[in-house]
Design goal:
The structure is a single chain. With 106 residues, this protein is mostly helical. The protein has a domain of 70 residues: Cytochrome c-like domain (Cytochrome Bc1 Complex, Chain D, domain 2), CATH 1.10.760. The chain has seven helices and no strands. Helix 3 packs across helix 7 and helix 5 runs antiparallel to helix 7.
């Protein structure tokens, strides 16, 4: 029984993947440049800038990587993402994915 619980625990930790390696505290520090458009916690008040708070980690990693690679086009985001390292991207994604998003009211 102990071996099965240990194995299940290890599998759960490994399933978390890069989120476990990413540092949301470092992401918060790195997000200061992002805050000018996206807000300090990722809940942008301006309709022109998307809200990042509460977005899925994997989505944020892919979006930033695509901006960096030129696969996703945006005149503002491309130069912002150009100098991000993979670690920077993961840390930013960890920070924003842990923020509370704003609920949509209909």
């Amino acid at each position: 029984m102990k071996k099965m619980l240990f194995t299940a625990g290890c599998a759960a930790l490994l399933a978390g993947g890069p989120v476990l390696a990413a540092n949301p505290v470092a992401g918060k520090e790195k997000s200061k440049t992002c805050a000018a458009c996206h807000g300090p916690d990722g809940n942008s008040a301006a309709a022109d800038f998307p809200r990042l708070a509460g977005q899925h980690y994997d989505y944020l990693v892919k979006a930033l990587a695509d901006y960096k690679a030129g696969e996703r086009k945006n005149a503002i985001m491309a130069p912002q993402a150009a100098n991000l390292s993979q670690r920077d991207i993961e840390d930013l994604a960890a920070f924003y994915s842990r923020q509370a998003g704003l609920s949509v009211k209909y």
